[in-house]
Amino acid sequence: MKKMSTKTLAIMAFYCAIFVILDRLSDTLNLFAMASGGKLNLGPIALLICSYHLGWKNGLFVGFVSVLLQLVIGSVSFYGIWSFLLDYLIAYSCYGLASLFPNYKYFYSGIIITSLIRLLSSTLSGTLLWETPFWGSLTYNGSYMIPTTICAIIFVPLLCERLKKVW
Is 41-163 CATH 3.20.20.70? Predict the structure, then answer.
């Protein structure tokens, strides 16, 4: 196993910090907020950029650590281990996998695929844990996930192109 450099660890910590900042900003803006949880969240932008910058393994790890940071800060609301796994751990960690999927110029397919994984995870949570009908859970979660995905589709390619000069 290749040893991780101090620089890589510092960059990973930076992405975790940016995630927390964007997550708290999303809490403050409270856009597309749903009554039982869920809102437009800008935090995934940091996780997606991390995946494209550092690769899927480090991206997955940063996603995992970011969820733990949310837990420590107290910005998560879950009801049991399955709720935590489906609504947070799987939902946010999957963004780290984005770099596994091909890009087509400014269209980053990993954004769409990982957002669909998160939508599926949250929909399953609503269906299995809250006993909401599948289509109701899909509609509920889609109402804030679609704006989150649109923001990521716009901002991630723009930021990645600008950051390539620094990387």
Answer: no
